[in-house]
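Input record (one chain):
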Amino acid sequence: MTGVSITNNSLGKGGYGTTNFNKTNPTYTGNTTDGWTHVNNLDSQPADPTPKPEPTPEPTPEPTPEPTPEPTPAGATQNADVLKGDAGNNTINGLGGNDQIDGGAGNDTLIGGAGKDILTGGAGNDVFVFKAASESKGLNRDVITDFTQGQDKIDLSAIDANTGLSGNQEFT
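The corresponding structure, as predicted from the sequence alone:
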């Protein structure tokens, strides 16, 4: 109890005066001669001489950072390049030259282009794209190092299966 004041009231045999109550230091002023005052803690709990701490405020949550865009493998030229993707779903085009292309983890699309290329899809469902029969024939054929049947795919949709007919025929 804090800040309670009783003024000009009789407390026991004391006469009139002022009694101020607080938990740690009750004070008596006024006419208290030949009187007595008895102060009870109404909660039947001992007075707490230490103040209660202020509640700790909840921390302010950190803002959610914006996602970092996936890096696009750069540096492909008409020369022999070494290109490596990351854990994202990359599309890597080696253009020309005898390239080494590694998609890394993720569902990648690898396009070797012209030249004798070494293609590694890495983890994930990868697609190996061939756009012309001339990209991979004879001693200049491309090599896929980690093709997994039922998971990875070879895309020949841009190659005409029968050049003797007009249009683009599909492989069957």
